[in-house]
Design goal:
Blueprint lengths: L1 H9 L3 H41 L5 H18 L1 H37 L15 H20 L9 H4 L8 H41 L6 H8 L2 H28 L2 H15 L16 H25 L1
Length: 315
């Protein structure tokens, strides 16, 4: 019971809820495409049933029941494998969400430990960093370390590269890496969907041949069955295109969840260095990043108090 309560508290955190929702979004896209594929195959199965019934090549009730049971049997037989796949997709989504939050988490953890007076180094990740935020935050935290040593808020010169930035910038390098990972993940899930389609097609043709018997081997019926390969190829391409578009759209959607916060942190750091000691990060619409923003603001309060107390002693 205590373990369940702890897990429930875990998902009450803003960043944990973001990771949970991100994982569910990845699962939702795959589930939708899989159900859509199953629906298309069911339509093909219904057309086969109508065709053979119209030509009196099979008992209508027996054929319909056989087709329905065969398609359902594929779902039931592959259910354990499907659940494992969904769990893997969920954790892949959580991982992608973690990549987006990681730079803010590094800043938050560093700020929290520094606020407690711990000796800690700021080491942002090379792969999952945002170029603007990571480069300037390294410069900014070195500046704060110097202020801590001298116990005064000293003047600082900001490089011209950073003074010309007046709004959110698109992190091309980060997004390219992020998009590449999404595409690799999409290709893997596409293979899973193609496997599902192949299993459904195999089961469908097996039942048709077993139920209709020799009638299915007639030239017209055989031609009808063989040319359905084009239909299944079309279903595969539809599912592949739908999967790629959906996950690419999700990639842009997820990036939009952090893009504004990148500039918010950067502009606060720059403003603080320019002399605005009241500059703090205020995030609206970025609930998943607020815990790290609060830790960062707490560190700025700590630096400001430390320097002010030293100045008051000097006076």
């Amino acid at each position: 019971m205590k373990t369940l309560l702890n897990k429930w508290k875990l998902f009450q955190n803003e960043d944990s809820r973001f990771l949970l929702l991100t994982g569910l979004k990845f699962v939702g896209i795959f589930t939708f495409v899989a159900l859509f594929v199953y629906y298309l195959v069911w339509i093909v199965a219904s057309l086969n049933s109508v065709y053979f019934e119209a030509r009196d090549l099979g008992k209508s009730i027996e054929l319909r029941e056989a087709l329905t049971d065969s398609l359902l049997s594929v779902v039931v037989d592959k259910l354990p494998l499907g659940l494992v796949l969904l769990i893997m997709i969920f954790f892949a989504g959580v991982y992608f969400g973690k990549i987006l939050l990681r730079p803010f988490e590094v800043i938050g953890n560093y700020s929290a430990k520094s606020s407690e007076g711990e000796s800690v180094e700021y080491n942002p990740d090379l792969f999952s960093d945002y170029k603007l935020l990571t480069r300037f935050s390294e410069f900014f935290f070195r500046y704060l370390e110097e202020c801590k040593k001298e116990k005064r808020l000293k003047d600082a010169t900001i490089p011209p590269t950073f003074t010309r930035i007046h709004g959110p910038t698109f992190e091309r390098v980060f997004f390219f890496h992020f998009l590449l990972l999404i595409l690799i993940f999409t290709i893997i899930t596409v293979f899973a969907v193609v496997y599902i389609i192949a299993e459904l097609r195999s089961q469908l043709f097996t039942i048709l041949l077993n139920t209709t018997g020799k009638a299915a081997s007639e030239q017209a019926s055989l031609f009808f069955l063989e040319n359905q390969s084009f239909i299944f190829e079309s279903i595969i391409w539809i599912s592949v295109i739908l999967m790629i578009i959906s996950y690419l759209t999700l990639a842009f959607h997820l990036y939009g969840k952090v893009s504004g916060a990148i500039f918010a942190f950067f502009s606060t750091m720059r403003s603080f260095m320019k002399g605005n000691r009241n500059a703090r990060v205020h995030l609206i619409g970025y609930a998943q990043i607020r815990p790290h923003g609060r830790a960062f603001n707490k560190y700025l309060d700590y630096i400001e108090r430390l320097c002010e107390n030293n100045e008051n002693k000097g006076n």
